[in-house]
Structures are given as structure tokens and as C-alpha cells.
Design brief:
heterotrimer; A mainly alpha (224); B mainly alpha (78); C mainly alpha (120); A: 224 residues; mainly alpha; 8 helices; 0% strand; globular; B: 78 residues; 3 helices
């Protein structure tokens, strides 16, 4: 009975939505804000990757809000997990086989290096803090699943996460003191295409990479 | 163009499989196949940043969180 | 028919995913299956947002080589919005799953009909 009502409701909503979506043309430039950012992005910010300059320079306040939402979600998850019931025999972890153990310990620094490379070069190639942080978190998950019964230490994750958030807000306040508004680009811009260019954008992406990576790894270590 | 149509058909069939399966581990694997094909479609729409984010977050980390939650509750749907 | 599919295939894909996710939310009773439905609907909406900014024969918005035509680049503003939306989706999913595990430990069942009837 619920299935029939569900299909009927979705057919009614789908009919209304299809009448609207058919009017939208596909593959034609629709807005003027995007063309303004592409034309003036490289001179005003110094970053070669336009998506990075939109995320961290033109719409930097939205990134601060998103970092706050991640922090609140991790806080809420820690509070709910604190009230779980623990059974008696759950903390004995059986060790994995020798091949798996050696392979995971060999791969862990390589994956960490790859994730760090992605978020340091965020303003030159496609990439950035969120993608590099997710790769670092998956390196930690590999160690938890493959190596010999490692206990999860949560204090280091909390330390790096707080440090990343603190650096983001401090750089924003320094921009307020030197430039006149919050998150202004006060460091020298340099030549576009070099590693040390684009003002505060590499510093902010390093802070975001540390924060997102240790946050996602901390969420999985908390649930395990 | 034919390749894109084939990928979209695979994505919709895999999403319908996520509705129908009763074993929850199978349903989670079908949902992660949907996320993987969405990452390939992001690459065809000339968005490499978003494709990297969806492939690493939606395919690898979400399935680990689901499997830990299924281990602590029941495995079958009924 | 071929030109119709040619121009609207991405809209069909994204709204198909949204409707399948909504159908799981209406018609199924297991709590973890409902959370899988929310995940599928999230993916569909992100695909729709990115397909709005596509320009035919366009390229990615990165000035990697010296001579690139800035008129043929895709719109960079939806990319920034979708990056934020993907990460927030994962955070909300983790919180929802921890609440589902806590509900199971209190009521010993994950069926929505039984949990709604046991309130008072």
C-alpha cells in the first residue's frame, strides 16, 4: 500500500518538475558573475586555478561556515558515542596476517605523501584542501583495518583539528588588521605559476587540509 | 555520447538495485557504485576538482562509516 | 529523438536519482535504508548543479598553459558550491548513523513502525 502511494506522489511531483526543467537550455553560458571571475581572477588573486580563488578569496566566508559545520558535526558525534553501551569482550582485536601487516605499514607514508602533495599544490593544479584531507584520512583507515590490533589514539586528532581551525581564523583576523576587511589578501602575490604565490591561499589550504584530514580520521576512530 | 548514455543507464539500474536488495551490505555497495559513476560523469562535465572530491569522499569514506554502523546493528532488513 | 536525448541526458540522470532517493524515504521502513536514500538524493542534486554550468566544447577553468581562450571555460561558481555540499553531506551522514546506532541500542529494533508506536 505504501509503495503505491509513494509511486503516485512521485509521479505528480515529477510531472511538475519536468515542465520546469525543459525550459532550461543546456550548454549555453547563463551568468555574468562567472565570466567576471574568469577574466579578472589571475590578476586580482594571483592563483592560476580559478576554482581555488573562488573558494578561498571571493567566497572565503562560505568556507569558514563549512569548516564550522564540520566541527559541529564531529562534536555532536563525539557526544552521542560517549553514551554507547560497551560490551565486555569488544576490546580484544585479533592481529592480521603477516603479508597484510607489512603491506599496510609500507603503504602508509606513501599515501600520506600523496595527500600532502595534493593540498600544497592547490592553487596551481586541480586539487586542494578537501581532497587532500580525504586522502590522508583514508591512509589512517588503512592502518586501522590492516595492522596488528592498533588502538585508536584520539588525542592527537583533536590537537591537529583545533590547530587547523585556529590558524584559519587567525589569518582572517590578520587580514582584518592589515587590509581593512576580514580575510583580505595581505601577503605579496608574486608571479602566477610559482609555488610561493597567490598571497594567503596556500597557507589557508594547508590549514584546511590538516583540519579535514584529522577530522574525518577522528570520526572513524571514534565509531570503531 | 553513446558512452555517456550507457553510463547513465548503469547508474539508474544500480540505484534501483539499492532499493530492492534486502541484505544491507549489498545495498551499500550499490550506493557506492552510484557515487563512482557520478564521479566519472563529473569528469565528462569538465570539473576535475569536484570529481576528485566525490571519488575520494563518496566512494571510500562513506562506505567505511556505513559498514561500521551495520556491524553494530542488524544486517538483514526485516 | 536523438537530439532530445543529446541535450537533456544529464537532467534525466540527476532527477532520476533524486526521485529514487525520495521513493526510498517514503516506502521503506528500515532506518539504515532511509539513510542510504538520503545519500543517493544528495548525489543527484550535486550532479544537477554541475550540469547547469557546462558550456559546449568548453574546458576546465585552470590557466595551465599560456594561451587559453577565456571565453571557452566552464562556469567556476557551481564548482565551489558543490565542493562545500559534498563535505557537509558526509558530516551529516556520520551524525545520522551514530544516532541510528544509539536508537538500536535502546529499542532493540530498527523498524520505524515499531519505534513510532512505542512512544507512550
Amino acid at each position: 500500500m505504501r509503495i503505491v502511494i509513494g509511486i503516485l506522489l512521485i509521479c505528480v511531483v515529477a510531472f511538475a518538475i519536468i515542465l520546469t526543467v525543459v525550459e532550461i537550455p543546456f550548454g549555453i553560458s547563463k551568468t555574468k558573475v562567472g565570466t567576471y571571475y574568469i577574466d579578472n581572477g589571475v590578476e586580482q588573486t594571483g592563483a592560476v586555478n580559478i576554482v581555488t580563488s573562488v573558494v578561498l578569496n571571493y567566497r572565503g566566508f562560505d568556507t569558514l561556515g563549512e569548516v564550522t559545520v564540520l566541527f559541529i558535526a564531529a562534536l555532536g558525534l563525539g557526544a552521542v558515542v560517549y553514551t554507547f553501551e560497551r560490551k565486555k569482550g569488544e576490546n580484544t582485536k585479533t592481529p592480521a596476517s603477516l603479508v597484510l601487516n607489512t603491506g599496510c605499514r609500507f603503504l602508509f607514508p606513501l599515501i600520506l605523501l600523496f595527500g600532502t602533495y595534493i593540498f600544497i599544490h592547490g592553487h596551481l593544479t586541480p586539487g586542494g584542501g578537501f581532497q587532500g584531507g580525504a586522502i590522508i584520512a583514508s591512509a589512517f583507515v588503512l592502518v586501522y583495518l590492516g595492522c596488528k590490533g592498533r588502538n585508536s589514539e584520539k588525542k592527537n586528532f583533536v590537537l591537529f583539528e583545533s590547530l587547523g581551525g585556529l590558524i584559519f581564523v587567525v589569518v582572517g583576523l590578520l587580514g582584518f588588521i592589515f587590509g581593512g576587511y576580514f580575510l583580505s589578501n595581505f601577503m605579496p602575490k608574486g608571479i602566477p605559476g610559482e609555488l610561493f604565490s597567490a598571497g594567503i591561499i596556500p597557507v589557508l589550504y594547508i590549514a584546511i587540509g590538516f583540519k579535514v584530514g584529522s577530522e574525518l580520521a577522528g570520526i572513524i576512530a571514534e565509531l570503531l | 555520447m553513446i558512452f555517456v548514455t550507457f553510463l547513465v543507464a548503469m547508474m539508474i539500474i544500480s540505484a534501483i538495485c539499492a532499493v530492492v536488495f534486502r541484505d544491507l551490505v549489498n545495498a551499500v555497495i550499490a550506493a557506492s557504485v552510484v557515487s563512482l559513476i557520478a564521479a566519472i560523469l563529473f569528469y565528462f562535465l569538465q570539473a576535475p576538482d569536484v570529481a576528485m572530491a566525490e571519488a575520494s569522499i563518496g566512494t571510500a569514506l562513506v562506505i567505511v562509516i556505513f559498514l561500521i554502523a551495520i556491524k553494530k546493528t542488524k544486517r538483514y532488513e526485516d | 529523438m536523438m537530439s532530445f536525448i543529446n541535450s537533456y541526458i544529464y537532467y534525466i540522470a540527476s532527477f532520476g536519482l533524486v526521485f529514487i532517493g525520495l521513493f526510498i524515504l517514503i516506502a521503506k521502513q528500515n532506518l539504515i535504508k532511509m539513510i542510504i536514500g538520503i545519500n543517493i538524493a544528495d548525489t543527484g542534486v550535486n550532479l544537477f548543479l554541475i550540469s547547469l554550468g557546462y558550456i559546449r566544447k568548453g574546458t576546465a577553468p585552470v590557466f595551465s598553459r599560456p594561451n587559453l581562450n577565456p571565453r571557452l571555460m566552464v562556469d567556476p561558481v557551481p564548482h565551489a558550491l558543490v565542493l562545500t555540499a559534498i563535505v557537509i553531506g558526509v558530516a551529516v551522514l556520520a551524525l545520522a548513523l551514530s544516532l541510528a546506532v544509539r536508537l538500536f541500542q535502546h529499542y532493540r529494533t530498527l523498524d520505524m513502525r515499531k519505534i513510532k508506536e512505542q512512544r507512550w
